[in-house]
Amino acid sequence: MRNPFVMQCGEFHVDYKQDMAIWKIARVRWRIVTIVALFALFPMVATDYVVGLATLCGIAGIGAIGLNILTGFTGQISIGVGAFLGVGGYTSAILTTKLGISFWIAFPLAGLITALVGALFGIPSLRLKGLYLAIATLAAQVIILFVISRWDSLTGGTAGLVLSRPQIGSFTFTSETSYYYLMFVVLLITIVFSLNLFRTRVGRAFIAVRDRDIAAEVMGIDLFKYKVLAFFVSSFFVGIAGALLGHYTMIVSPELYSISVSIEYLAMILVGGLGSVFGSLYGAVFITLMPVVLRSVVDVLSGTFPGLEAVLIGMKEVVFGVVIILFLVYEPDGLNKIWSNIKNYFRLWPFSYTK
Amino acid sequence: MAFFLQMLVTGIVVGSVYALVALGFVLIYKSSDAINFAQGEFLLIGTYVCLTLVASYNVPFIAALLLALAFSALLGWSVEKVVLRPFIGKPVISMIMATIGLSSVLAGIVHIIWGHETRVYPPVFSEKPLQFGEVIIAPVYAWSFVIVMIWLIIFTLFFKYSRFGIAMRATADDQQAALSMGISVKTIFAIAWAIAAIVSAVGGVLLGNINGVNSSLSLIGLKVLPVAILGGLDSIPGAIIGGIFIGIIESMTGGYLDPLVGGGLKEVIPFVILVIILMVKPYGLFGKKEIERV
C-alpha cells in the first residue's frame, strides 16, 4: 500500500530549473491548491470571532514576511517595525479621511511611502551592522513615533484618527468574512512575491549580503544598493500590513505602534524561523494567538485560583519572554524547522535512521 | 544665565546617572559581546527591592540599598548562568532576542509583584535646597551626583588595580589569550553581569528618589542605549562622557526647546543625536573600530 504521508517521491531533477521550481511535482501542486482552498472556504464554517482572529493572524503574517525579508534574509536586525506599521496605517488614514482618496489608491501608496521612509532609515546600514544597526532602527522607532504623536494637524496627535472600511462601488468590507477575503488576497500576493523574490538575482544578493557582506561586495554586489533595497521592500510589506490593520481596527493612534509591537514582530520571525517565508506565517499565528489562548486558560483556572485575572498582563509578559528564550535555546530555526522535522519523520517512516 | 546654569547642573546630575547605567551596558558588551536589553528591568527590580525594604520593613536607607545591591548582584549573576550562557558565540540577533525575552520575563514578574502604580521613597535626603549663587540644587541631586562619582571612582580603581578588574580587561581584549593565562572567562562573564545589575540598581534608586518609582522607570534602559552607543559600546570613559553629554543636551532641550514644540522633544533628542553621530562615526566617539577580513 502506498504510504499517504510520502509526499515527495518522484523528484528526479535534471536541470536547475526543476531544482528551483516551487511546485516540484504534480502532487505538491495539488496539495498547495487544497490548502489554499481550505483557507478560502474556512470562513463559511467559522464564527465571526474566529474569522476575526484569522484576519489578525494574516495581517501579522504580511508584516512578519516583510520583516523577515529584512532580518531573516538580509541579516539586518530592525527594532523599528512597529513604527513602520504606524507609517503605513497613518498614510492610509490621512489619504482616505483627510484627502478623500479611495482606499484602493491609498493602500498601495501607504506601502510605497512606508518603503521610502524605511529606505531613508536604511541609509546608515552601509556603515552600521549588527548591534549598531539595531540601535539605529530603534532610534527610527522613537523618532517616527514622536513625529506621529506631535504632528497634531496631520495625525490627530495622541487621539489618533478614525478610519472607515474600504469599499468597492456600493459594497463595503464591513463584515468579518469580507475583510478576511481582502486580507487573504493580499497575503497570497505577498507569499507568492516573496517566495519568488528569493529565486531572483535580487533575492540571492540579499542572502549573500546576510551570509557574508564583505565577500558579497568582493563578488560585485553593490552593498549599499541591496541593503537599502532590502529596507525598501521589507518596509513596503510592513506598510501594507499597517494599512490593512488600520482599516480593520478602524483607528490609528500612536500607542498602537509602540516598541512592544516591534518586539512582537521580531518574536514572530524568530519563533517561526528566520529566513523562511512560511515560518513567518507560523510565527505570526503563534504570537497573535498566544495571548488569546492564555486568556482562555486564565478564564478556566480563575474559578480555582481567584486573583489570577489581576496578574494576567504580567503573566502574558512572562510567558512571552519564556517562549522566546526556549525557542532560542532549543529550536533556533523555529516552528518551520519543527514542521519540516515532522514531515521528514513521516516521509522516511519506517526508516527513520536514513537522512 | 541662572536658568542656563540651572539646566546645566540638572543635566550633569541626570547625565551622571545615565553614565552609571551605561557603564552596565559597556561592561556586558566588553566581556560577552551582547547588549543587555533587560538593563532597564534590572534597574527596576533593584529599585523596587530597596523601596520595599525601606517603606514596608522600615530598614534604614543605607542598609536597604546595600541589601538591594546584593540582591541585584545575585540576580545578574544567576541570569547570566541560566539564560545567557547558551548564547555565547551565537549570532547577534539571538543575543538581542534573548535579552529582550529576559526583559519581558522580568517586567512581567515586576508587574505581578509590585503592580503598576507610582510609589515614592520616604524622604531620605534633607529637603532644604542648597543655594550656590543663583543656582538652586535639591539635595537629592547633589547626593546623587556624589554617589555616582564615588561609584565611578570605585570602578575605575577596580578595573585598574584589582585582580578581577585586570582579568576582565584581559578577557575583553582577547578571550582565548585570557583563557590560556588561566583566567576563567565564565566567571568573568558572570561578574560582568553582576556588576551591570549593581550599577543599574544604584542608578534606579537615585532616579527613584528623584522622580518616584513605577514600571515605566525601566524605559531608562532604552534611553541609556544611545548613551552607550554614543561613547562607543566598548569604552568605559566613553560611557561616562556620553552620559553627561546626553544629560546636558536633554536638560537643555527640556528647558529651551520643549516649550516651543509643546513638550516631548526631550525624550527624542538622544536618539536624534545618536543617528547623526552614527552616520559620521559608526563606532561611537571612543569605540574600537572592528577590522573585518573575508
Automatic annotation (TrEMBL), chain B:
Pfam family, one: BPD_transp_2
Alphabetical UniProt keywords: Amino-acid transport, Cell membrane, Membrane, Transmembrane, Transmembrane helix, Transport
InterPro entries, per database record: ABC_transp_permease, BCAA_transport_permease
Record field: transmembrane: 6-28, 61-79, 91-115, 135-159, 188-210
Places the protein is found: Cell membrane
GO cellular component terms, semicolon-separated: plasma membrane
Protein's membrane topology: Multi-pass membrane protein
Molecular function GO terms recorded: transmembrane transporter activity
Main location as per UniProt: membrane
Family: Belongs to the binding-protein-dependent transport system permease family. LivHM subfamily.
UniProt-recorded name of the protein: Branched-chain amino acid ABC transporter permease
Annotated source species: Anoxybacillus flavithermus NBRC 109594
